Amino acid sequence: MTSVIKKILPFAAIMLLLSFFGTAQARPSTPACPTGQTIQSTLDTGASWSMCWEARDQEGVVLSDIRYQGPGQVQRRVLGEMSLSQIARNYDDGSAAEYLVTDQGLGGNNFIALQSSECSGGELHYASGKAVLCEIQKDAGFIYKYGTSVARTGKVLELMSASQLGSYSYTVQWIFHENGTIEPKVGLSGTVTKTSYDPNFAWPMQQDGLGGVGFVDNYYWRMDFDLGTSAWNDVAEQITSTLDVTRTLRSKSIETLSNETARVFSPESKRFWRIRDGSETNGVSPISYELVMLNYDHQSKGANNEAWLQSDVYFTSYNACERFAVDNDTSSGCAWDISQFTNSQGINSNDIVVWNRLSYHHLPRDEDDNVIGMRWNGFKLLPRDWHAQNPL
Ligand SMILES: [Ca+2]
Ligand SMILES: [Ca+2]
Ligand SMILES: [Ca+2]
Ligand SMILES: [Ca+2]
């Protein structure tokens, strides 16, 4: 190596660092949130999460500019915005459908004021003077464990709000793990008010045979993935691992979703989806997040051919007025439901929004008399190749 090159190399390295920090400056290390709306949490391993939160009348607590940083790693944005965008309820007795997020709203007066005892060790956040959000770290148990001597435990960041809609209540949680996993959850509780003596629809709860009428809630989460620096270069992929005719070989295939599409989960083909960045890598592979379906046991298409119940996951091109999966405001030129949002616009290397639906059939039982034990439904967003090796 000539002495000239030896002199140039450190200079080039400094310029590279300068350009890196120059980029980092344009993209601040913590989200630029309105005053008092920032959440910044560093967990046991040094992994950290930062984001903004906002209280809306309809969706309740909405999170935005969500960024994850593994210990000693680069901080990267994961999501531009994430919300529980609708709870569509159909009673078993054929009563008119209810759209709880838009009809009643999870926020405003329907927020349940949280007690400091419910957030002990954490921090309460306020909207219009009411404590509506608990930010807290909790023990998460093992991050990994093998052999007799290798184990690591850690914490999770848990954000929790709760809403009272008539006699029913919904507790909304967002759980952020040390390893970058995000876990959105919603818990149903409250009291059963819709009752009937008709055993076709109601499960008897009183001595005279009066019972609670069953219903199906369809929860829809809206996730505006904006991976890395650019929100405009994300790619959605469907991955399947399908058995051949001999049922001895399981072959992987990856399909890029070129246009907006609605898809159905398939345990048989191990179908799942991921959003990956169009350019940023972990040094080898593109950074991405995959959708892990949980609580799929009640998933159903509904009884009335509702277009918005025919698929499980929807991939759309970002459109600001597409806020609610069903019963969306059409006055601003947007469509009414996700099946209409999904109208074949191109999404390959674009600003993508993912909508996930989970059905839950609540058939009351005697133990729901006189308060419904919490029933949780949720799923996970799991980093895939976010790091070139386990960051913890
Ligand atoms: Ca009873
Ligand atoms: Ca991107
Ligand atoms: Ca569209
Ligand atoms: Ca996006």
From TrEMBL:
Name of protein: Amine oxidase
Signal peptide: 1-26
Residues carrying 2',4',5'-topaquinone: Y168
Cofactor note: Contains 1 topaquinone per subunit.
Any one cellular-component term (Gene Ontology): plasma membrane
One GO MF term: quinone binding
Modification after translation: Topaquinone (TPQ) is generated by copper-dependent autoxidation of a specific tyrosyl residue.
Active site: D103, Y168
Keyword Signal: yes
Reported cofactor(s): Cu cation
Positions of the Copper amine oxidase catalytic domain: 48-391
Catalytic activity, EC: 1.4.3.-
Source species: Leucothrix arctica
Family the UniProt entry places it in: Belongs to the copper/topaquinone oxidase family.
UniProt keyword annotation of Signal present: yes
UniProt keyword annotations, A-Z: Copper, Metal-binding, Oxidoreductase, Signal, TPQ
InterPro entries xrefs: Cu_amine_oxidase, Cu_amine_oxidase_C, Cu_amine_oxidase_C_sf
GO annotation terms (biological process): amine metabolic process
Residues passing through the membrane, by range: none
